[in-house]
Amino acid sequence: MFHRFANPARFMALANILSPWLTVAATGLLVAGLYFGLLASPPDYQQGETVRIMYVHVPAAWMALFVYVALAGAGGAFLIWRHPLADVFAQAAAPLGAGFTAAALITGSLWGKPMWGTWWVWDARLTSMLILFLLYLGYIALANAFDNRERGARAAALLALVGVINVPIIKFSVDWWNTLHQPASVLKIDGPAIDPSMLLPLFLMAGGMKAYFLAVVILRMRARLLARRVRALRLAAVGG
Amino acid sequence: MGGYSAFVWPAYGVVALVMVGFWLAAWRDLRRHRDELAALEAAGLGRRRPAPDTAPNSAPRNTGEARP
User: Fold this and answer.
1) Number of neighbours of residue A97 by Cβ within 10 angstroms
2) N or C end of chain B, less CB within 10 A?
3) Do B22 and A216 touch (CB under 8 A)?
4) In this predicted complex, what is the ipTM?
């Protein structure tokens, strides 16, 4: 199944079918998430209205981690099986992952100022998220740093694989070190510590962002595949 | 927003900016490359066949097959 859809043409056929559904799902989930997040959920008894920042901050942070794990998976597939589509996916996904990480960092800062009294602290969770952002930038820079695209893709895939060690560090940083950041309150062994009225917008926004990512990454992959075809035609024209 | 508008709205604004920005940029790139490919094919370069994202049976990447 995995190898079957590693064929660009076959994958694009599937992507063309999925694209409109993903766009509809993303729009519906995000609109519902915004309604429940901004209007139909109560303020927190301690944090007041600032808790609404959670509905964009936490899903953006989840996406930042999810996209990086996907990037590392694609890197592995590219290095092991030389699937060209794995590289196309990784190149399309990395800037989106960097965007989600930047959004998580900025929204966290906007949440931290009123609740902690500071925009930023160099603690484990915040610093490891900043490292994730730098890993994304490093990945993008490395992939484009070589005249030989294949070499750039291989070097970037290796960085993605090595950097994935940062993901569990981010996840468990709040348990391993003292930090201002609150510990896990949703993905816990003994169940979420958040009221269902707040979990609903959180999961709606998380689902919406996931569908959005898939829809946009497919658009970006289609654009990259077209760009490759254009480049190949131009090279063929120059070469006679 | 209970006195926290200056923090809540910018947080939503940043996320909206990132998501809408990437979505618009992706569409713009897709359209640009589609137009480029159409122009090249109209100029007689490559085999005349639909763009790879609209033709499931075409190979959008150099697969080593002979091309005119």
Assistant:
1) 28
2) C
3) yes
4) 0.89
Question: What pLDDT sits at residue B65?
Answer: 41
B9 vs A contacts (CB less than 8 Å): none
Q: How far is the alpha carbon of A65 from chain B, nearest alpha carbon, in Å?
A: 16
**Span between the terminal Cα atoms of chain B, in Å:** 64
pLDDT given at position A126: 93
How far apart, in whole angstroms, are the C-alpha atoms of residue B40 and residue A224? 16
Q: Could you tell me if A118 lies within 8 Å of chain B, comparing CB atoms?
A: no
Average pLDDT, chain B: 78
- Which 42-71 residues of chain A touch chain B by CB within 8 A? 43, 48-50, 52-53, 56-57, 60
User: Distance (Å, rounded) from C-alpha A135 to C-alpha A193?
Assistant: 31
Asked if B30 and A237 come within 8 Å (Cβ–Cβ), the reply is no
Identify the segments of chain A with pLDDT beneath 50.
none
- On the question of pLDDT at B27 being above 90, the answer is yes
* Domain residue spans of chain A: 9-42+52-239
Question: Would you call A106 and B61 a contact, using CB atoms and an 8 Å cutoff?
Answer: no
Closest CA to B11 of A236, A109, A149: A109
